[in-house]
């Protein structure tokens, strides 16, 4: 009861007094708000709607019913000046955002009186709309759910409203007192070098190692594997073991229960998503970059070096590592495994097409599997789901390549985050900010997590309800409760212009996949083009931390210096190493990374 009273009092004191509210002026040149005058509404109807949604939809929650209704009352009161308006927001199309668009937007309208048009489009289109608004100054959407991968872009160009400033200043009257920023697991991912928070996490998912736990547990397969390789069939710790397991299932086992099986799954179509396959930390898994979290310093997982906060080069000649031995090894293994161990159709697939394939029941493991596909692989009736609804598969930490060192990031997390642009009129930003907070508030966040399985709050993943259902999610909950999650991070602040640089990856990688260039040639060209872009950005000038390219030096100079880039190893395939899944899971449950 004390907690309930404290919440109610805090929320009540924070509600703005509508009659005393000063009119805020829109930025010069911005379009006016859609509705100048607030509409008169039936407050009793809004109250009844809040009760309906809390009771019938937003359960379970880490809050009590009284605390949930107190949050809803705050939203209802704070929304008063904006009732009758229609705000426009956009996000990529994944299950979590479908839930927001179809369910949460309706709930928000019924509870607050503010209408929401929540568009769902492809991720590349989201970035294109964002770029257009930043370049033209014309407001297209009132807020964007935009990957935190663009944090370096947002910090440098100055088009994005730093949320730290907004919440303490012009948006204070529309900032939820119980938002609890420190509860967001991705807080560090959306924080710039200046210590300011630029985006608000809305959903996140990692790429982890996925495998058929039922197959790995079979005594006959375990015996055959150990006889051939001299160690136990288990979760691979290094890429050598992953390769051995891929070879074993593809060429030794070949068939299980009458089905042709493969030891690896991936995708390789010439498409922008091929770039994500690499920029989403594939190189760091091999060992590219320096130690440090959330991203290596001074060299990150893209191979970009920064001096202070200024990008200084991607090529080895300038102290970067995009075309270093570790990066070339990463590309080489990707191509080899795709051709040797994956289903034949994998090479012609995109990210979205390949994601559900392991659910068809013919794949033994996948080194680079996004947990955003967890929900589709839990559907009753799938070959990878038991009759009682439990998964036959599990997820575990990704294995690392021979160049990797302890203390280096090991994988990637996609953190879609609410992003506010300065070119959007202030009053529209405020109304959209209310909706953004509604989608991540403690009243709603746990239910959203259970729908999309893309958790954002530490309190949700540690909740009593999630503890009860954790077993059905194949290791997802244990991963997010463990310190291991800290080694999985999005693209960091070293990347000064994500849209310009990201497109270079898939265009060059595809040439190596198709055999038109060797992996070394492809990465050399990529590094050179990245340096060219950094040079143009340096000449054009940026508002904050612009690139300042290092002079070209002999590669040996950089190889001999401490840290990245690393020289080529004499042995890129050490002995395979595995760990029992149950041992790994127990470590996570005890709060250990491994």
TrEMBL record:
Signal peptide: none annotated. Keywords: Cell membrane, Lipoprotein, Membrane, Palmitate, Signal. It is found in: Periplasm. It holds the Pfam family SBP_bac_1. Gene3D superfamilies: Periplasmic binding protein-like II. InterPro entries: ABC_tp_sb, Bact_solute-bd_prot1, SBP. Belongs to the bacterial solute-binding protein 1 family. This is Carbohydrate ABC transporter substrate-binding protein. It comes from Archangium minus.
């Amino acid at each position: 009861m004390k907690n309930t009273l404290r919440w109610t009092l805090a929320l009540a004191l924070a509600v703005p007094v509508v009659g005393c509210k000063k009119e805020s002026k829109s930025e010069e040149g911005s379009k006016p708000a859609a509705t100048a005058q607030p509409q008169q509404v039936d407050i009793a109807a809004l109250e009844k709607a809040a009760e309906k949604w809390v009771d019938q939809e937003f359960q379970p929650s880490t809050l009590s019913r009284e605390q949930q209704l107190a949050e809803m009352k705050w939203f209802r009161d704070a929304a008063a000046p904006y009732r009758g308006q229609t705000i426009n927001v956009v996000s990529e199309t994944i299950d979590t955002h479908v839930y927001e668009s179809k369910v949460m937007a309706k709930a928000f309208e019924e509870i607050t009186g503010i209408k929401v048009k929540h568009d769902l489009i492809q991720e590349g289109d989201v970035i294109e709309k964002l770029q257009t608004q930043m370049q033209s100054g014309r407001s297209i959407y009132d807020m964007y759910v935009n990957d935190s991968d663009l944090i370096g872009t947002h910090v440098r160009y100055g088009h994005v409203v730093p949320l730290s400033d907004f919440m303490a200043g012009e948006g204070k009257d529309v900032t939820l007192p119980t938002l609890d920023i420190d509860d967001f697991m991705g807080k560090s991912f959306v924080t710039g070098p200046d210590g300011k928070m630029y985006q608000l996490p809305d959903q996140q998912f990692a790429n982890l190692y996925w495998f058929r736990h039922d197959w790995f547990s079979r005594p006959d397969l375990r015996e055959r594997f150990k006889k051939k390789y001299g160690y136990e069939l288990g979760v691979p710790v290094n890429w050598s073991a992953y390769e051995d397991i891929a070879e074993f299932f593809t060429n030794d086992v070949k068939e299980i229960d009458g089905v042709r099986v493969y030891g690896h799954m991936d995708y390789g179509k010439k498409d922008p998503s091929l770039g994500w396959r690499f920029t989403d930390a594939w190189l760091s898994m091999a060992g590219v970059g320096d130690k440090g979290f959330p991203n290596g310093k001074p060299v990150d997982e893209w191979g970009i070096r920064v001096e202070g906060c200024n990008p200084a080069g991607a090529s080895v000649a300038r102290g970067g590592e995009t075309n270093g031995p570790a990066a070339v090894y990463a590309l080489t293994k990707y191509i080899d495994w795709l051709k040797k161990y994956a289903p034949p159709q994998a090479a012609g697939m995109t990210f979205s097409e390949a994601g559900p394939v392991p659910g068809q029941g013919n794949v033994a493991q996948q080194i680079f599997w996004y947990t955003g596909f967890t929900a589709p692989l839990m559907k009753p009736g799938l070959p990878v789901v038991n009759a009682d609804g439990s998964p036959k598969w599990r997820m575990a930490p990704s294995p690392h390549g021979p160049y990797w060192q302890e203390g280096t990031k090991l994988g990637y997390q996609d953190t879609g985050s609410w992003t506010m642009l300065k070119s959007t009129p202030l009053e529209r930003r405020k109304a959209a900010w209310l909706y953004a907070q509604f989608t991540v508030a403690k009243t709603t966040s746990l239910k959203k997590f259970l729908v999309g399985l893309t958790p954002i709050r530490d309190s949700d993943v540690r909740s009593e309800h999630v503890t009860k259902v954790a077993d059905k999610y194949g290791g997802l909950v244990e991963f997010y409760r463990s310190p291991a999650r800290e080694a999985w991070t999005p693209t960091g602040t070293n990347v000064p212009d994500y849209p310009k640089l990201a497109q270079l990856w898939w265009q060059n990688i595809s040439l190596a996949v198709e055999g038109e260039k060797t992996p070394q040639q492809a990465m050399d060209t990529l590094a050179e083009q990245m340096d060219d872009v950094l040079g143009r950005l340096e000449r054009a000038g940026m508002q904050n931390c612009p690139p300042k390219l290092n002079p070209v030096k002999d590669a040996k100079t950089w190889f001999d210096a401490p840290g990245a880039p690393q020289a080529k190893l004499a042995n890129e395939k050490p002995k395979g190493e595995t760990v029992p899944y149950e041992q790994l899971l127990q470590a996570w449950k005890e709060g250990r990374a491994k």
